[in-house]
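quick one, 97 residues, struct below
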Amino acid sequence: MKIANKRDLITAVDRSAEELHQRIDMHRCLMATILEQRVGDGTLKRLSLSSYSPVETRLREALSETIEVLEQTRKAFKSKRLEALRKRLTHVLIESK
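---
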């Protein structure tokens, strides 16, 4: 059995902290969606917070950030295409869990 050195421990702690941050962000996004009544009971039952690979995690973060920016700017642009894109990305992010 390999004994971990300080660098290995720091790397493990960093990875763990990053995963916690990602789960908190996902929780915030889910709660905002639920509170805005965008998710039905059927969708809520399918949601799960499983572990993701680093690549998947980065993609999910990018999607979440994109959705958030589209949400924040939706009144400024009033574009049906941007609204449809935002809804589609939200749906994809929720279904991918």
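The CA atoms of residues 23 and 35 lie 18 Å apart.
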